[in-house]
User: Fold these one by one.
Assistant:
Number 1:
Amino acid sequence: MSNKVELLAPAGNMEKLKMAVQYGADAVYLAGKQFGLRTASDNFTLDEMREGVAYAHAHGKKAYLTMNILAHNDSIEQVEPFVLEAAETGIDGVIVSDPGIFRIIRKVRPDLPIHISTQTSTTNWETVAFWHELGAKRIVLARELSLREIREIRERVPNVELEMFVHGAMCISYSGRCLLSNYMAGRDANQGDCAHPCRWRYRLVEEKRPGQYYPIEEDSTGTFIFNSKDLCLLPHLPDLIQSGVSSLKIEGRVKSSFYVATVVKAYREALDAWYAGNWQDVQSWLEEVGTVSNRDFTTGFLFGKPGPESHNYATSSYIRRYDFIGLVTGFDKASGRLVVEQRNHFRTGETIEVLPPKGPVVSLTLGEMYDAEGNRIEAAPHPQMKVYLAGVPPFPEYSILRRRA
Ligand code: SF4
């Protein structure tokens, strides 16, 4: 890989993969229908994986396959045939946490680069060296490491790629190694099906008084005692680049394509600015990542153990300042109209913003609109309907139309 740090983005399905690539990711990570630790995202069939990998490669990007479940006996048998088929799609590496899966891949496809998932909770340089000696190409460090610890790991084990999370949701346990959801909802986080009960509001009930809920208060701030804010290390990218890590990862395979595009673009611009010697006030990039759903931001463990400021005690609802209303799919040269696929209702006269894959956000007021048959319409009420916008610039394909929420 180049000397520049890699920006690695989530690809929960084909559209998200393409958006990540278009908005500036250097690589994407995706899962097949098995073994991928995100059952809520669409994930990829083998044919889709082949298509997605080819799309990434055609744009000079990489695609890694996530296989980071903790496998039980009944699923371990299926690993070998799946790996052999997935390897034929051209994937650039496999992300694993289960040593059994690691062993199978080393045995049947020793040429396939292996990345050790953050689910292994690698928190020290001896563990990094351990995995490296076994043949791992890259270690995804635990989110629970400070910048000082990352620097020391880099110094002590210089010849292995290190990857770290820079943006997205945080677990209250060591990244997903948690049975809370399994116990409370029958949905196992370690099999990719977490129901996020750590974010729920808890009350106390005495068993002979059903319906009487007593508040639990850790202190006067309330009861969302496990409700971590989201990680955002964008202001600290210069420190992260200089720490010697190889890859910066954005979490969120179940997040929307709007989310993926917006966050990737902000980090892309910030990284490019730093490499161009043009690091500037980060406020505009922070505002951009704040336009899509988040639980407010924290630097997590980067500067040591997080305190109360890393938790959101007031609410577990997402903050979202903009709605995704349309996706540019082309420009109709004959009529001079921009072709947009509707994602949320919008109408003539509304002021909206356009987020193109590259370049500044543009604000505009919607003028004349037409349907696919050329009929004039005042509104775009149906999901996925094609709308033709007159009097707007020919924004590139994959540009996002958004409106203040
Ligand atoms: S319940 Fe919360 S802490 Fe546990 S795995 Fe799910 S998100 Fe992480």
Note: Residues 341 and 386 are 5 Å apart (CA to CA).
Number 2:
Amino acid sequence: MDAQVLIIGGGIAGLSLAWRLAPSVSVVVVEAEASLAFHSSSRSARQMQPSYGPAPIQELTRRSIAMVREISASLAAPILKPRPLITVGSEAEVHALAAGNANLVPLGHGETMKLSPDLRPETFAAAVLDDTAMEVDVPALVEFYRSQAEAAGAVLLTEAPVTAASGLVHGFAVVAGEHTITAGIVVNAAGAWADRVAAVFGVRPRGLVPHRRSVAIVSTTTPANPAGPMVEPADESFYYRPDGGHLLISPCESVPTEPGDAHVAAADIAELIHRINAVTSLGITGVERSWTGLRTHPADGLPVVGFDGSVPDFFWLAGQGGYGIQTSAALATVAAGLLTGEPAAGDAALAAALSPQRASLD
Ligand SMILES: Cc1cc2nc3c(=O)[nH]c(=O)nc-3n(C[C@H](O)[C@H](O)[C@H](O)COP(=O)(O)OP(=O)(O)OC[C@H]3O[C@@H](n4cnc5c(N)ncnc54)[C@H](O)[C@@H]3O)c2cc1C
């Protein structure tokens, strides 16, 4: 099988790139698992928060929300809905957080209580609001990327783990499960496995470390307002938000972990329930279900996107950390521009910040 571009990894990164490339380039996506988006991409909190992350992430998130808004309008049912983010803490903490973050606006104590009446008023002194934050239906977004890519001719292969590769004059011959694929360019969109996949191609790793993080859906004695905000403390040590009649909570742990099928640490959830019950009147009673996924990033915390620079025809789309959903549409667009040699005017600074050749990855 031949392709101009072979994408390794059928998570949201690989599928969104296939969506952008397939109309103009022949694309094959290979996924090790039996189903697409099995790992991190089906385990997120489904948020798109323009105030979250360093400047390049905030820029990509703003762009992605505009793009997903258009996608949502083209579908039978909307996939994007407002989910404002309230961050609470001491005056000093909240002031430090809001400084230079144009997406955060100060919120008075009374206004905070109005938006989030379940918070115990004595547990915080100050608050800020990101009222541009959204919740996205991730399965529907992934399905949009997948179906558009396939409709444009992309070939998607599951149960096709990449295990070996040899360099050709241009590109590579790649063994993926029972397939051998000859590709002009290989894209590494392998999430937690990205450094391991790089090694198969003789490419220098970029220090991409998976960190586990858990989420639980819990029931409460006081039902949370379905349209209520996500709430977190300024030190980002947990968050909670309404979720279909229940509450979604995360202890925001960030524990370095081997790539794999991550599992929840029950003690983290139990401790968090205790903590949320202390700062709210929601009264969490029990856990409905829980899951754990991996947030993979290099030491400087930014994604790694672009041609490797040392090994020709090898392209990185990895290291999205906790931002892979909220940046997917715009990041795939930037990546597609770099791959086809037609980067959009205005993307040069972003491309430099995310480059696999940046000094902070040495
Ligand atoms: C608890 C939690 C909450 C989160 N919340 C948010 C949020 O609210 N908003 C947000 O933007 N982000 C969030 N994230 C982060 C987001 O989920 C990730 O950034 C994103 O899913 C990464 O997508 P990916 O496609 O790179 O990785 P993955 O979805 O893991 O896809 C990589 C794929 O590559 C495949 N693969 C690996 N090796 C090979 C190989 N050798 N051959 C073939 N295939 C291979 C894997 O099987 C996998 O399917 C959260 C993450 C977690 C864990």
Note: The radius of gyration is 21 Å.
